[in-house]
């Protein structure tokens, strides 16, 4: 897939104000500071489509972008540590949950994981919750350029082994680096394939 156009559509915290669910949609989410905005910008060939920050918690809304006038890319607030109040964090969790459970054109959720660190309970629990609600998701490991290839392979195999303690089958897994453009073609080809799937065939502009 070649990204020809990537345009911002709307930001909000109310699922009823999201764009009409008429085309396939793909959401990106992960712990705060996992490199989500950098990955989105890398996938879309845009330097600042998604806002990046050295401080966790930059994304605070459901952000819709339309890609090639064919599908939506959705940038969701990160979960986990962020320098925000508990009340605001509870609000985030509320509208994120509502979005994930009710968005009928949501084809896949990309859960971003920092490949440098060992499996975190917050990520595992988040993915278990997706599984329990029968929400399709894939894993995109980020920051692959920050460690050696040998350590990268070890970390990924360890993560797979950890997941197989709770899952019978593993989700699709991608390895990415926004710095070296790794994983871009694989993720976009995967989205292109899903756009042609049965789940997306009934969606039209």
Question: Can you walk through the features of this model?
Answer:
The protein has a seven-stranded mixed sheet, sandwiched between helices. The chain has a single domain, classed as P-loop containing nucleotide triphosphate hydrolases (Rossmann fold). It has helices at 36-44, 86-102, 121-132, 149-163, 184-195, 198-201, and strands at residues 6-12, 25-30, 62-67, 71-75, 106-114, 137-142, 173-175. A hairpin with a 3-residue loop joins β3 (62-67) and β4. The model is unreliable at 53-58 and 87-92 (pLDDT under 50). It is an alpha/beta fold and 205 residues long. It is built from six helices and seven strands. The two termini are 19 Å apart.
Task: Name its key features.
single chain, 205 residues, alpha/beta, Rossmann fold, seven-stranded mixed β-sheet, 7 strands, globular
Question: What layout of secondary structure does this protein have?
Answer:
Layout: E1 6-12, E2 25-30, H1 36-44, E3 62-67, E4 71-75, H2 86-102, E5 106-114, H3 121-132, E6 137-142, H4 149-163, E7 173-175, H5 184-195, H6 198-201
Provide a short characterization of the protein structure.
This protein has one domain: Rossmann fold.
Structural class: alpha/beta
The proportion of strand residues reads: 15-25%
Report the mean per-residue pLDDT as an integer.
87
CATH superfamily: P-loop containing nucleotide triphosphate hydrolases
Large-scale geometry:
globular
* Helicity, as a percent range: 25-40%
Number of domains: 1
Strand order of the largest sheet: 1-3-4-2-5-6-7
CATH architecture classification name:
3-Layer(aba) Sandwich
Major sheet:
7 strands, mixed
As for the CATH topology, it is: Rossmann fold
**Span between termini:** 19 Å
Order of helices and strands: EEHEEHEHEHEHH
> What is the CATH class?
Alpha Beta
Count of helical regions: 6
Low-confidence stretches: 53-58, 87-92
Gyration radius, in Å: 16 Å
Number of strands: 7
